[in-house]
Design goal:
Layout (H helix, E strand, L loop, with lengths): L1 H8 L15 H18 L2 H115 L2 H14 L1
Length: 176
């Protein structure tokens, strides 16, 4: 077994490793690591490391708490805006219904106005027709009167002589 240890302790080219104070290099490395760890423990390096880690953990917790707060605020804003959107949609529906009712009222008023206007125009047309009819009747009567007067003048001129004039004049005077 000693031969194996000497072979392992020797380098790749078969030379022996140096030893100081009877300790091989791996023993010196182990001793240095032990001293280094002891110094770390004596100077409270693990406490510093854990303190740094604890402060980092506390910072992360603070960030998580802040993130939770921000999330709650964001959800509250989202709910508020969702309520505003729902309210706006209801208002829009109410406005549409109001506009539809107003349009229906305007259409009904326009229909009523058009019926009234048609009736008024029909009355005006009937009045114009009646006026034209009266004018035509008056014109026919005037023509008939003119024709009758002309015919009576002609008949009177043909059949009426001076003796008939005297008889007529006497009758008119006697009636007075």
């Amino acid at each position: 077994m000693a031969d194996i240890l000497t072979l392992l302790a020797s380098g790749a080219d078969g030379h022996a490793e140096p030893a100081v104070l009877g300790l091989d290099s791996y023993q010196w490395v182990a001793l240095a690591m032990t001293v280094l760890i002891a110094v770390f423990v004596w100077k409270k390096v693990p406490g510093l490391i854990t303190g740094g880690l604890d402060s980092k953990i506390a910072e992360i917790r603070n960030q998580l708490d802040e993130a939770k707060t921000l999330r709650a605020e964001a959800e509250a804003l989202r709910n508020e805006y969702a309520a505003k959107i729902a309210s706006a949609e209801k208002d829009a529906e109410a406005m549409m219904a109001s506009a539809q009712d107003e349009a229906d009222a305007i259409r009904a008023r326009a229909e009523a106005d058009s019926v009234t206007m048609v009736a008024r125009r029909q009355r005006m047309a009937e009045d114009k027709i009646a006026a034209a009819e009266r004018a035509a009747i008056a014109e026919v009567k005037a023509s008939a009167v003119t024709a009758a007067a002309a015919a009576s003048r002609k008949l009177i001129a043909e059949r009426h002589d001076s003796t008939a004039d005297r008889t007529l004049a006497d009758t008119v005077i006697a009636s007075l």
